[in-house]
Amino acid sequence: MAWKHRHLVDVDVFSEEDLYTVLEEAVRMEEVMKRPLKKVPALRGKVVANMFFEPSTRTRTSFELAEKFLSADVINWSSSGSSTAKGESLEDTAKTIEAMGVDAVVVRNKQVGTPEYLIKKLNGACVMNAGDGARAHPTQALLDLYTAWRHFGSLRGRKMAIVGDILHSRVARSDIYAFSKVGVQVVVSGPRSLVPLHVFDLAEYEPDVRKAVKGADMVYALRIQRERQEEGLFPSIDEYHNQWGINEEVLSHASKGAVVMHPGPMNRGVEIDSFVADGDRCLVLDQVKSGVAVRMALLFLYLAGGGDR
Description:
This protein is an alpha/beta fold. It is built from twelve helices and nine strands. Helix 6 links the parallel strand 5 and strand 6 (185-189). Its EC number is 2.1.3.2.
């Protein structure tokens, strides 16, 4: 089918059909990644600018690989050492990039709403959100969905427990939207001080992590930033780990075939035990691999409209 969306801000605007269109396209892109020559000419002649205003290793590298595997020309831009560091506005920077003939802008910024701002200011370039503030991380949610779908097959009727700092997590919000739309029951758990009020309209909240993961097929541990403890949002790192850290005892309450996921980078001994992180049930490396395939699929759908590869 022809892809109907122009920009990627978050997955909340996707229908279930849209989500499966991305997943099915990602399967084809994963096949490309298995070839000795990992390249197709799908985006030859297209130019993509990666604009990252925040440090990033996984997301930025994953996007860059996806763009190059599709034969796009890539511009990597960062705020460090750029004109932005000299006081140039985001609008002027973006327009400068677009004037160079860019077809798409992949943007990460700590400011919520940056993608929508660029959509209004740019004339023709497609804008793709690589994470804005604590609000949204659509490509992470899609790669998480793809990872779980490839592992389990059908996801409808399954249960997912998201554990940790929901308040500051752009991943949690996007994951709740994506997994709920394909029929997954989503339960969140963590300190009440780290759970925003709007989450109660989107998912069930269970403060007891063992009750939250009971019968869960997917246990998703969110990264805990140590500065949250300094802000007084929970008493100590040790107490957080004892109450909400994902270990083998906590997993014993989940379903027999439950898997563990994490957006990375992991704080071992805080939100996840090393034994769990290194175990057979952990899909973190599968998530990393899925990230390239899913971003290839999205770039193809947005820039080539889902036509011939």
